[in-house]
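Researcher: Structure prediction, please.
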Amino acid sequence: MNGDFIEANFLVSAEQHFLSDLLIDVLASIGFDSFDANENGFCAYIPEHLFDEQAMIDALTGYAADFQFSYTIKTIPYQNWNEVWESNFPPVVVSEQVYIYADFHPMQTLYPYQIKMHPKMAFGTGHHETTLQMAEQLLTLNIKGLTVLDMGCGTGVLAILASLMGAKTILAIDNDPIASNSCKENFEINQISGEVICGDAHAISGMHFDLILANINRNILINDMAFYAAALVNGANILFSGFYQEDLIYIQAAAKENGLTYQFHSSKNNWVVAKFIKAV
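Model: Predicted structure follows.
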């Protein structure tokens, strides 16, 4: 067994680009553990020893009639993968308040919130439009003393920022063990006190939160909307992201069905963050 990765580069038609999340869900179910969206589709990554091209084709066959996509496959040596990832991880500054940097970057004390990351390959390092917008919206809220849930936490950027802003308790959840382990590591690096769970929305049954951050994808957000609504206290806010502008109407409909009222949304490169509130 070696540490190489397989990169499957999926080209999706422009008209159906917003449906890439469905393909990503299927690929995640058969072992692909990292995804990188781009203007032509997305790249999916899986350890080489777990890759079975026929199994991938079989899993995607049900979507072939509905989607216009093609793919190419290449192998990426593990060591080169990490070197390239680090070299393409510049520090991120959010609203001139948050400095997100890797452990191989120098500190910048100019900014009030410093978040030191060991990025690895987990989603949520602050570079993606969804994480960036979620952080921007988080900065507009007064969360001192609140109980906060970071759902789909990735490397834990949002949970760490919430803690630095004064949240009372933090729970971070991701169904990807690579992401949840990375989040735990980054909690330790930043000396954050909080709980990290590898799981899904079922883990929050019976819990209650003053603020929920849910950066996942359209299908999971819709499927789990009832869990989020039940866990959110009356009068509290929830921020959704991880979906495209075209998906907003579906998120709004699911939220409304579960007693959540739309407040506003922002968009960058067609990626959306939307704020909802649970009525008192």
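Model: The mean pLDDT is 87.
Researcher: Thanks, that helps.
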